[in-house]
Design goal:
7-stranded antiparallel β-sheet; mainly beta; 6-stranded antiparallel β-sheet; single chain; 44% strand
Length: 597
């Protein structure tokens, strides 16, 4: 009996899951293979042997991990950054940039363990870098041989209303009831604290009066949620909630950078104790503006600098009206060693947007319009904006990308933010319209945006998701690209490194598995439906990668960081995929046939 021969017309489905071996009813069954190693898929459906790599340089210290990061000014000027422990080195045109034999290098503060938590957003010659344990920084390029690395000069930083730690002990006279005396270890209560809450864990009490003149060690309180029998409550474990309950009266509303005096008052206009020496450096947000406190003159008066115009004042005189209690807030800097720093950033509508700090994991902040170091939130359209996502779970923001709307990837879901009207920009006192998308959560890995599509790695690290606008539904829809190749990411999942997107000539996305293999995805989803995976395996472990435009500007070039054993010694090499092969540079099939003959 003659053997039946299977006619395979293409390999457009790539390497398929072993679980599909019994599914000949699927069209992709006849377009895929069970094993595709060191091959790449043509957009037309054929395959070709993946080119090898060419050695560029050994890293500064092969005993330590290194990350490769692209720095692309334009198609003609593109760099690869060797980011190691406390340093960055630069490569261009296939070689390291040296001056008189010495590598060009800048000093950083990032340790080896922190390298793969770095996130960045580039604006021409400046790369803005975020890490949750470090102040936001920028890497600036002047020329091939002149670079600088500095923290952002935040003028001012974003701020938020935090609890007030009075730094002393507290002894409630009872655990429940009204009119209960709470005695502090020092005279710390002010008249402006009346109607504020004392909180200790889940316990809460409202201050109704002081035991005498302000400041006073005793506050009379109504207990709303019972206090445990803990006397005294240690310093640093109880707090005052919200802002002082005083009127705040500023003596001017502009200009930005101008000096201003703010007085705490009663409803009748008399001075009221409102401020403490610890308020130095904090911020007062009132009447749509922001004031940075530079001097605490007394318990009822502070001086400061206007950081955002008090634009909501209706006064026609030099002095704006006083803001009543509850209509102004006392705030602290959002980013510092105590509250953490943003873990990710991106650009949207001319703003540098950050999010995902330790103290405010679901808050994103946009800079002033085209003013990337100004985070003074105000009511004017060009001032900074700030928004906290409220959802059922506290999922940290992992990335921010512009997809027409500001897309916010968190560990549990993906959200989209836009102005409330049609094509209305974000800014000023406009409250963003934020909506959860029908999409799974994400790892901390910046998506690749292709037109109206974002491709990202799902929170497990084992699925690759295509988030695309669907015109039929008038909404974004998530599709699991690995549903027919669920094994391709391996049981250990994908490494937290950037997705390397080589658009030219054959539209490949590259990922790295935790076992050191590279996953390659050929992506021509519409209308060709060529979406197929293959793998690159080498004599070593691929630890990082990136793509930049080729020096010839006609294609993209993939760089690898490979850990190899050379004569029994571990080495980390920077290598370039040898893209001189005809499969990479040929533009039409007859020419390719001639070259291969």
């Amino acid at each position: 009996m003659p053997l039946a021969r299977k006619l395979q017309t293409n390999f457009s489905a790539g390497e398929l899951s072993p679980r599909l071996e019994g599914r000949p009813d699927l069209a992709k069954f006849f377009n895929g293979v069970s094993f595709l190693e060191n091959y790449l898929i043509f957009p037309q459906g054929g395959i070709y042997r993946a080119p090898g790599t060419r050695f560029v340089n050994e890293v500064k210290d092969s005993t330590k991990k290194v990350r490769l990061i692209p720095f692309i000014v334009n198609r003609q000027t593109a760099y690869v950054l060797e980011v190691g422990e406390n340093y960055i080195r630069m490569y261009r045109n296939g070689r390291r940039i040296d001056v008189a034999g010495v590598p060009v290098e800048v000093v950083t503060t990032y340790t080896q363990a922190e390298l793969f938590d770095l996130m960045w957003a580039q604006s021409v010659d400046v790369n803005f870098i975020d890490h949750p344990s470090h102040a936001p920084a920028k890497l600036s390029r002047v020329s091939d041989s002149t670079w600088s690395f500095n923290n952002l000069a935040l003028r001012p930083p974003p701020s938020f209303e935090d609890k007030t730690n009075l730094g002393t002990t507290l002894t409630p006279a009872a655990t429940t009831g009204t009119g209960i005396a709470f005695t502090a270890g020092a005279a710390v209560f002010l008249t402006g604290d009346i109607d504020r809450s004392i909180i200790f864990g889940s316990s809460r009490a409202v201050i109704t009066a002081l035991g005498g003149a302000s400041p006073n060690a005793v506050a009379t309180c109504d207990i709303l949620d019972a206090f445990p029998d803990t006397n005294p409550i240690p310093a640093g474990e109880w707090f005052l909630d919200k802002s002082p309950n005083s009127y705040a009266n500023a003596d001017k509303k502009k200009p930005v950078g101008g000096k201003v005096t703010v007085v705490g008052e009663t409803s009748g206009g008399a001075n009221q104790d409102t401020f403490r020496s610890a308020d130095l450096g904090k911020f007062i947000k009132l009447l749509g503006g922001l004031i940075e406190i530079t001097e605490v003159t007394s318990a009822n008066t502070v001086k400061g600098i206007i950081r955002a115009t008090l634009s909501k004042s209706t006064s026609t005189t030099a002095n704006p009206e006083a803001a009543p209690a509850g209509e102004w807030t006392m705030e602290v800097a959002m980013w510092n060693a105590t509250h953490g720093f943003p873990s990710t950033d991106g650009f949207y509508q001319g703003r540098l947007v950050h999010g995902g700090s330790l103290g405010n994991p679901t808050t994103w902040v946009g800079s002033g319009s085209d003013s990337f170091e100004n985070y003074a939130v105000g009511a004017l359209a060009d001032q900074a904006i700030q928004y906290t996502i409220t959802s059922r779970q506290l999922n940290t923001i992992r990335w921010l990308v512009d997809l027409g709307q500001l897309f916010i990837g968190t560990e549990g879901a993906v959200f989209a933010a836009k102005g409330p009207g049609v094509d209305q920009p974000l800014g000023g006192d406009v409250i963003p319209f934020v909506r959860s998308q029908n999409a799974p959560g994400t790892v901390k890995m910046l998506p690749v945006v292709i037109g109206t599509t974002a491709i990202y790695v799902q929170a497990s690290g084992k699925r690759i998701v295509d988030l695309t606008y669907n015109f039929d539904d008038a909404a974004f829809r998530a599709l699991d690209l690995t549903r027919y190749s669920e094994h391709i990411c391996d049981a250990a999942g994908l490494k937290q490194d950037q997705i390397a997107w080589a658009e030219e000539p054959n539209r490949h996305l590259h990922f790295i598995r935790n076992d050191g293999q590279q996953v390659n995805l050929t992506y021509f989803r519409v209308p060709e439906d060529v979406v197929g995976f293959s793998r690159r395996v080498t004599d070593g472990l691929i630890e990082s990668h990136c793509t930049i435009p080729h020096p010839d500007s006609d294609r993209d070039q993939t760089w690898l960081l490979v850990r190899r054993m050379i004569n029994g010694v571990e080495k980390r090499y920077i290598e370039i995929v040898d893209d001189g092969a005809p499969e990479f540079i040929a533009r039409d099939w007859p020419e390719l046939q001639t070259d291969c003959a």
